[in-house]
């Protein structure tokens, strides 16, 4: 959890690490994409060095280029995916960022809409995960900050965030979820 949260004055940045399995799954996709695009480059080199005709190889070049990009883009996304939440106490603003390489998708929320930090579990008897969420009133979508396999780590993160943002931390582990009707 050491690299999960950084505090700088009134700003808290929480990084959700990408599981290593996701990064590992990107390697076969990138290898397949590299193979397809390498064959496109070899074909184009042959066509432009007077050993072939581009008109004869145009369809395979376009198909291999399309397949290479179709397989390579998800591999690049898996490899470079980052998700982090920045809580700015001074501006009373929350910025949720999903980053895929150079592409940033940001969502802004008002910190005044969120009133407490909750710790919940997933009711799995074999492998329980404890989620730390920033919650507000009914109708306010909670923001998932981090998931842990040990309850002590979740309590520690919720306490630190609560101390910085002056919000109470509520432990809902082992309680029944609210019905959607209420």
UniProtKB/TrEMBL annotation:
Protein name: DUF304 domain-containing protein
Origin species: Bradyrhizobium diazoefficiens SEMIA 5080
Ranges annotated as spanning the membrane: 20-38, 58-85
Key words of the record: Membrane, Transmembrane, Transmembrane helix
